[in-house]
Design brief:
Length: 80
């Protein structure tokens, strides 16, 4: 198992990216207890539905849906 060294954010890029996205909605030091679960869920939905450059500016949900559709097409040969 890999553990990042303390005070080494470059070893945790996904975590640091997520923190940066969350800071757009909640500045550092924000007391999250004042927000309702509905508010927090809305922020999570907004972040999880952002388009990604690596996905050709599609959202993860769009790519996932494409994959599901391709698996449901009848007559598609598989290799194996």
């Amino acid at each position: 198992m890999f553990s990042a060294d303390p005070h080494s954010p470059w070893q945790r890029p996904t975590n640091e990216n997520t923190n940066g996205l969350l800071r757009q909605y909640f500045p550092k030091g924000t007391d999250l207890s004042r927000w309702s679960s509905t508010d927090l869920e809305a922020v999570a939905t907004a972040i999880n539905n952002r388009p990604h450059k690596i996905l050709g500016w599609r959202t993860p949900a769009e790519v996932f849906e494409e994959q599901l559709r391709s698996l449901q097409q009848p007559g598609v040969a598989t290799t194996g």
